[in-house]
C-alpha cells in the first residue's frame, strides 16, 4: 500500500513538473497559434542562466528568478518580433513551425559553443532534501514546483479574465480582425504573449535547475512530454494543460512501475495517439483552435 | 622520454622527413563539433599524442605523419568526411572515431575504397564482426564491459562482503539504445554462466526524467546489486533518486559513460557517490607497473594541453594508435595490404602498454586482449580496484 501511495505521490510531483513546463507552451499556442518547438531550448537557456547566477554569485537558485524571468520575456518577445512576425503573413502556417525548429537547433548549438557538452550542476541549497510523511517521501524542491504550477495557472487565468491587457489578449485569440477594428494593436499583443509564454518557462527553469543537471540537450528531455500534455489538455487551455500534466505524470509513474520503465514512453505516446483519435480537441480545448490550423 | 631524446628524435625525423618523397597522410575522424564533441576531442588528443611520439622518433619508414582531421558530427557527415579524406587528401589509413554509429557508417566507405580503418574507442558489438577486411578495433567492447562487471562482482566484491555470489539478488538496468542494450545482454549472459541470480532486468529511454518507479521496483524486489549501463544524465538521476528514496543496495556497479566523470560526482555529491563501482576504459588512478608508459603519456598530455586528461578516452586512443603505428612502421610500407599484413602480425603481450592490456587481432579484427578495468569512487576519487595487479586501492564496502 505504501508503495502504491508513493507511486501516486511521485506521479503527482512529476505532473507538477510537466505542468510548469507546459503552461508557457499552451499560452503561446492558444493566442498566436504557433507551436513553439524552441520551448525546450528556452527552458535550457533559463537553466544555464540560473546555474551561472547560483554558482558565480553564490546566491540561492530561486534568487535567479529576478534575472531569468525578464531575460526570457525579452527572448520570447524578440523571437516573436524578429522571427515569427515577418512570417505571419506567409501563405503557409507551417513556415512558422520550421522557423521555431531552426531556432531550437541554433540554440542547442549556441549552448554547446558557450557551455560545452558537459553537464552543469546548480547547487541545490537544500531543495533536494527529502521531506518525510510517515513512509512517504518527496523533495522540497518538487513541492515548490507543484505549488508554483498552481499559482501560475491561477494567476494567468485571473490575468487573462480580469485585466485590460488580458481581455485584449483573449480578444485577439478569438478574432484577430475584430480585435484590430476595436483598436487593439494585434502585433503588440503577439509580442507580449510570446514574451509571457517564455517568461513562464523561465520560471520553470529556475525551479527545475536545482533538481536536474543542466546540459545543452536538456530541453528535449522535457519538451516532448510537454507537447503531449498540451494536446491532452486542449491546445491553448491553461487549466487543461495543468490537468493534462497531472494525468501524464500519474500514467508515467504507474506504467513505469507496473508495466516497466522501457515501456512507459510507449504507454504515454500510445495515450497521445488515442487522444488525437478520440478527442482531437483535448480535455478543455475548443474546436476552433484546431480548425484554424486546417 | 627525456626532453633530449625528444629533441634528438625530432631532429632526426626532420632530416629523414626532408629526404623522403612526401609526408604520409593519415585521417583523424572524430566528432569535433556537435553533442559528442567533448569526448570526441578528448579521444582525438590520444591519437595526436601517439603521432607526436612516432614523429619525434623519426616517423614511419622515414616519413613524418601528418594528420588530416575530419569532423564526424553526425553519421552522414562521417561518411562525407571519410570520402573526402580518401579521395581529396589521399590518406593511407583512417583512425578514429569514438562513436559507434559513426564508425559503422564511415567504415563502409573506407572498406569499399580498400583503405584500412583503425577504430580506437567505439564499444558497440556491431563495429567488428561484419566481415570487413580493412576495419580493425584496438579498444575493449560492450562484451568486455559486461564480462568485467560480472567478474569483478563474483571475484572481488562478493568475497569482500562475505557473501556467496549466488545468494545475491542482481538487478540490471540500462538505457535502451544499442549501447545499454548490448552491455546488459552480455551482463545477463555472463551472469548466467557464473550462476548468479538476476531478479530484474529493465531498460529505460536515455531521456527519462524520472526514475522513481524503477527505484521502487528495485527496492521492492530486494535487489542487492544494481548494474547500470548509462549516459551521464540518467546516471545522475538514478543515483540521486535512489539516495532520496533511501535505497542503499550492497553495491551499485556502473558501466562507463556517466560513472567515470568528475562532473557526475559533483552533481550527486561526494557522499552519495562514495563506494560506487564503475567499469570502463583504463583510467589514471592505476598501478603504473601494470600500465608501463602511462606516465610518459601524462607528461606529454600536460605539456601539450596544459591540463589533466578529462577521461580515459585519450589514453585508450593513444595506446591503440601507438600500437598500430608502430606495427605499420615495422611492416613493408603504406599500401593497404602491407598495412593489413603488418598489423595482423602484431603481438603485444598483456601488461606492456599504458592501458594495461596487450594487442593482438583475432579473426574478426578485434583486439582479443583488450579489457576493461574496475574502479571505485573513494573519497571523491575514482580509484582502480580490479584486477588486483592494476589496483591502487582495496575495495571498500559501505558501512
Main attributes?
heterodimer, A: about 290 residues, mainly alpha, two-stranded antiparallel ribbon, 12 helices, 2 strands, about 5% strand, disordered C terminus, B: about 400 residues, alpha/beta, seven-stranded mixed beta sheet, five-stranded parallel beta sheet, 13 helices
Descriptive notes:
The complex is a heterodimer of chains A (294) and B (399). Chain A is mostly helical and 294 residues long. In chain A, 72% of the residues lie in helices and 3% in strands. Chain A contains twelve helices and two strands, in the order H-H-H-H-E-E-H-H-H-H-H-H-H-H. Chain A has helices at residues 2-32, 39-57, 65-84, 94-115, 140-162, 164-174, 176-181, 186-208, 218-233, 238-258, 264-278, 287-291; strands spanning 130-133, 136-139. Chain A has a two-stranded antiparallel ribbon with strand order 1-2. Chain A is globular. Residues 287-294 of chain A have low confidence and may be disordered. Chain B is 43% helix and 16% strand. Chain B is built from 13 helices and twelve strands. Chain A binds chain B through residues 3, 6-7, 10, 14, 17, 108-109, 112, 116-119, 121, 128, 130, 137, 139, 212-213, 215-218, 220-222, 224-225, 252-254, 256-257, 260-262, 264-265, and chain B through 33-39, 173, 176, 202-205, 207-214, 216-217, 220, 232-233, 236-237, 240, 244-246, 261, 263-264, 266-267.
Amino acid at each position: 500500500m505504501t508503495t502504491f501511495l508513493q507511486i501516486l505521490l511521485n506521479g503527482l510531483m512529476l505532473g507538477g513538473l510537466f505542468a510548469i513546463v507546459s503552461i508557457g507552451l499552451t499560452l503561446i499556442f492558444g493566442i498566436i497559434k504557433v507551436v513553439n518547438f524552441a520551448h525546450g531550448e528556452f527552458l535550457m537557456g533559463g537553466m544555464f542562466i540560473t546555474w551561472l547566477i547560483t554558482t558565480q554569485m553564490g546566491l540561492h537558485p530561486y534568487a535567479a528568478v529576478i534575472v531569468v524571468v525578464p531575460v526570457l520575456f525579452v527572448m520570447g518577445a524578440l523571437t516573436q518580433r524578429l522571427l515569427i512576425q515577418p512570417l505571419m503573413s506567409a501563405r503557409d502556417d507551417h513556415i512558422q513551425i520550421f522557423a521555431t525548429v531552426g531556432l531550437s537547433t541554433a540554440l542547442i548549438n549556441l549552448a554547446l559553443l558557450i557551455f560545452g557538452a558537459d553537464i552543469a550542476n546548480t547547487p541545490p541549497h537544500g531543495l533536494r532534501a527529502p521531506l518525510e510523511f510517515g513512509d512517504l517521501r518527496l523533495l522540497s524542491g518538487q513541492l515548490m514546483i507543484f505549488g508554483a504550477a498552481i499559482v501560475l495557472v491561477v494567476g494567468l487565468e485571473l490575468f487573462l479574465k480580469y485585466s485590460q491587457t488580458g481581455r485584449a489578449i483573449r480578444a485577439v485569440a478569438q478574432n484577430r480582425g475584430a480585435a484590430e477594428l476595436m483598436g487593439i494593436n494585434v502585433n503588440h499583443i503577439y509580442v507580449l504573449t510570446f514574451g509571457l509564454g517564455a517568461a513562464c518557462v523561465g520560471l520553470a527553469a529556475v525551479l527545475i535547475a536545482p533538481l536536474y543537471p543542466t546540459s545543452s540537450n536538456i530541453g528535449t528531455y522535457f519538451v516532448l512530454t510537454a507537447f503531449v500534455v498540451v494536446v491532452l489538455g486542449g491546445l491553448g487551455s491553461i487549466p487543461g494543460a495543468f490537468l493534462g500534466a497531472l494525468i501524464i505524470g500519474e500514467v508515467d509513474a504507474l506504467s513505469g512501475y507496473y508495466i516497466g520503465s522501457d515501456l512507459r514512453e510507449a504507454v504515454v505516446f500510445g495515450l497521445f495517439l488515442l487522444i488525437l483519435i478520440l478527442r482531437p480537441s483535448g480535455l478543455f480545448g475548443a474546436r476552433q483552435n484546431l480548425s484554424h490550423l486546417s | 622520454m627525456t626532453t633530449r631524446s625528444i629533441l634528438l628524435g625530432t631532429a632526426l625525423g626532420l632530416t629523414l622527413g626532408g629526404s623522403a618523397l612526401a609526408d604520409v597522410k593519415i585521417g583523424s575522424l572524430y566528432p569535433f563539433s556537435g553533442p559528442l564533441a567533448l569526448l570526441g576531442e578528448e579521444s582525438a588528443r590520444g591519437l595526436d599524442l601517439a603521432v607526436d611520439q612516432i614523429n619525434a622518433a623519426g616517423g614511419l619508414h622515414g616519413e613524418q605523419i601528418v594528420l588530416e582531421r575530419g569532423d564526424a558530427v553526425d553519421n552522414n557527415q562521417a561518411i562525407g568526411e571519410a570520402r573526402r579524406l580518401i579521395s581529396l587528401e589521399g590518406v593511407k589509413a583512417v583512425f578514429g572515431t569514438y562513436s559507434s554509429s559513426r564508425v559503422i557508417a564511415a567504415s563502409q566507405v573506407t572498406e569499399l575504397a580498400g583503405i584500412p580503418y583503425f577504430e580506437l574507442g567505439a564499444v558497440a558489438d556491431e563495429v567488428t564482426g561484419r566481415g570487413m577486411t580493412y576495419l580493425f578495433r584496438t579498444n575493449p567492447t560492450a562484451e568486455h564491459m559486461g564480462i568485467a562487471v560480472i567478474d569483478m562482482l563474483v571475484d572481488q566484491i562478493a568475497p569482500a562482503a562475505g557473501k556467496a555470489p549466488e545468494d545475491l539478488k542482481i538487478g540490471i538496468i540500462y538505457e535502451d539504445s544499442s549501447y545499454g542494450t548490448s552491455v546488459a545482454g552480455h551482463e545477463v549472459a555472463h551472469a548466467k554462466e557464473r550462476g548468479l541470480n538476476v531478479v530484474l532486468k529493465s531498460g529505460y529511454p536515455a531521456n527519462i526524467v524520472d526514475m522513481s518507479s524503477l527505484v521502487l521496483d528495485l527496492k521492492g524486489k530486494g535487489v542487492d546489486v544494481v548494474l547500470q549501463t548509462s549516459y551521464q544524465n540518467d546516471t545522475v538521476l538514478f543515483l540521486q533518486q535512489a539516495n532520496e528514496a533511501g535505497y542503499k543496495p550492497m553495491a551499485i556497479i556502473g558501466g562507463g559513460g556517466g560513472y567515470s566523470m568528475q562532473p557526475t560526482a559533483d552533481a550527486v555529491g561526494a557522499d552519495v557517490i562514495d563506494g560506487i563501482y564503475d567499469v570502463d576504459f583504463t583510467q589514471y588512478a592505476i598501478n603504473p607497473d601494470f600500465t608501463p608508459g602511462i606516465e610518459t603519456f601524462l607528461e606529454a598530455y600536460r605539456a601539450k594541453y596544459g591540463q589533466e586528461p578529462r577521461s580515459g578516452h585519450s589514453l585508450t586512443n593513444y595506446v591503440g594508435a601507438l600500437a598500430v603505428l608502430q606495427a605499420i612502421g615495422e611492416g613493408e610500407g603504406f599500401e593497404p595490404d602491407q598495412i593489413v599484413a603488418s598489423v595482423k602480425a602484431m603481438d603485444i603481450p598483456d601488461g606492456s602498454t599504458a592501458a594495461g592490456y596487450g594487442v593482438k587481432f583475432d579473426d574478426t579484427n578485434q583486439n582479443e586482449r583488450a579489457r576493461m578495468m574496475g574502479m571505485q569512487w573513494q573519497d571523491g576519487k575514482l580509484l582502480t580496484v580490479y584486477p588486483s595487479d592494476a589496483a591502487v586501492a582495496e575495495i571498500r564496502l559501505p558501512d
